[in-house]
Write a structure and sequence with these properties.
It is a single chain. This protein is α/β, with parallel strands linked by helices and about 475 residues long. It has two domains: about 220 residues, 3-Layer(aba) Sandwich (Rossmann fold); about 180 residues, Glycogen Phosphorylase B (Rossmann fold, 3-Layer(aba) Sandwich). Helix content is about 40%, strand content about 20%. It is built from 16 helices and 16 strands. It has a ten-stranded mixed β-sheet with strand order 3-4-2-1-5-6-7-10-9-8, sandwiched between helices. The chain has a six-stranded parallel β-sheet with strand order 13-12-11-14-15-16, sandwiched between helices. Helix 4 links the parallel strand 5 and strand 6. Helix 8 runs parallel beside helix 9. It is globular.
């Protein structure tokens, strides 16, 4: 019987608690599809040997392994964090091109392909996730495995001229041509990809989403990643605190400093919010990368201290900055449910699953307002949020004022639309849409089937 074999950067549902939103989504899909899920366990070997563990858990099978110290240093930090991360976040100026890092990346992709091949049956489909494993299908196909292979990019795909900053950009791009289907979070990402391959490679457009590139038949689709739907919280909190919640990793793409500037401007221009509104900024240390600009963390701590020193007193602080612990899932959901605004404004992000989690945590009788960056994939889908330019502190400040003063009827209308979108287009819809597109006959299925997101998008929210 055919099955789905999923490969991602991490398969950490055993060793990592609480689960990250993406791990939670992939685990839910693996259980529904009775899949085999492979990936890094999150552990680092103390010697040069990789330990591999395989187990059955909740109707799916997990195969995880540790990284050697060399793989962790050269492949994971040397290439993924220091080269791929900056380029895929539109910051090639931050990239550090470390000798030998790409060769470590290429070898690691070969090893992952070998792990998949050990379990592969002729009718199985392979679903590879994110830029950590772009070369897996290339290795499988060159080894003679002809199984359907799909690739989904959870991050945003950069414009071609930025992608070209990677010295190995041609190898990476041509590796994607070995997949039968390449999926993106947004139409903007797919457009960047199609524009680049049309300019740089021998490309024939067979149909709206089907291309023949350098002799490979390649399907391109847009599949916004979803989260598990959950029932709305019971009961109405009558005296909810005026909290603005924001959860991020400290990085050069998070935009936290601009949020702090927006809060300062809000308090200066609208003094009625003094002693009333608090920004709760949670920066998860477990997801932090050591590759952000040196001194960034201290800069954020200084900005928070200046804000609290300028406006706070013994009874109230404008900022509550947390960067010392990973919040448990229940505590995170409680924080979301108690906050009157969810502020998710990165400079660049593939989807923002946390923004969807915020909407699901709201009480429909008294919901909070979602403020979302234009530069996240979720902005194409969640058009009833307040959409902002995260680089413009003035626009952010006005969006905060609009959200804080928004009438209940308007908040309920926006929340109802957002919740309907998120619950319908959940993680099962996302996985089924992608896998159906991967397994279908490209000659008989109409193009709109492979582009399910085209029905979702409307004009962006205004305020």
């Amino acid at each position: 019987m055919s099955r789905v074999i999923m490969a991602s950067n991490q398969c950490d549902v055993i060793s990592h608690s609480p689960l990250r939103p993406l791990s939670e989504t992939l685990f839910g899909v693996a259980k529904q599809k009775n899949a085999l899920w492979l990936g890094w366990s999150g552990e680092i070997s103390k010697d040069d040997k990789r330990s591999i563990r395989q187990r059955e858990l909740a109707e799916c099978e997990l195969c995880s392994w540790s990284l050697t110290a060399e793989e962790y240093g050269d492949y994971y930090h040397g290439y993924v964090h220091k080269q791929l991360w900056p380029v895929f976040h539109n910051r090639p100026d931050l990239a550090v091109f470390q000798p030998g890092a790409f060769e470590a990346y290429r070898r690691y992709n070969e090893r992952v392909a070998e792990q998949i091949a050990d379990h592969l049956c002729p009718d199985d489909s392979v679903w590879v996730h994110d830029y950590h494993l772009m070369g897996v299908a290339r290795n499988l196909k060159e080894a003679g495995y002809l199984n359907r292979c799909g690739f989904f990019l959870h991050h945003a795909f950069p414009p071609g001229e930025i992608f070209r900053a990677l010295p190995e950009h041609d190898w990476l791009m041509q590796s994607l041509f070995y997949y039968d289907l390449v999926g993106f979070q947004s139409r903007n990402d797919a457009s960047h990809f199609v524009t680049w391959i049309s300019r740089r490679y021998r490309t024939e457009k067979v149909s709206e989403t089907l291309f023949r590139v350098n002799g490979h038949l390649l399907r391109v689709g847009v599949f916004p990643c979803g989260v598990a739907a959950s029932p709305p919280p019971a009961g109405v909190r009558k005296e909810r605190p005026r909290w603005v919640v924001s959860t991020d990793v400290i990085s050069d793409a998070s935009g936290i400093a601009w949020r702090l500037a927006a809060l300062r401007q809000l308090l200066e221009q609208h003094p009625q919010y003094l002693h009333d509104v608090t920004l709760v900024q949670v920066s998860d240390p477990s997801r932090a990368s050591p590759c952000f600009t040196p001194g960034l963390r201290h800069q954020l701590e200084r900005l928070c201290g200046e804000l609290n020193g300028s406006y706070g007193d013994f009874d109230w602080s404008p900022v509550n900055y947390l960067h010392n612990d990973t919040p448990e899932t229940a505590r995170r959901e409680s924080l979301y449910s108690q906050s009157c605004i969810g502020l998710f404004t990165p400079f660049c992000e593939g989807m923002s699953l946390e923004a969807k989690k915020y909407v699901l945590a709201q009480d429909p009788a008294d919901p909070g307002v979602l403020i979302l960056s234009h530069f996240t994939g979720a902005a194409e889908q969640l058009h009833d949020a307040l959409l902002v330019n995260p680089y413009d502190a003035g626009e952010l400040s006005e969006a905060l004022h609009c959200a804080l003063s928004m009438p209940l009827a308007e908040r309920k209308r926006r929340h109802q639309q957002l919740r309907q979108q998120i619950c319908h287009y959940n993680h099962h819809w996302w996985a089924s849409g992608f896998l159906n597109a991967l397994e279908a006959d490209t000659e008989t299925v109409p193009d709109p089937f492979f582009l399910p997101a085209h029905r979702l998008f409307a004009s962006p929210g205004r305020y």
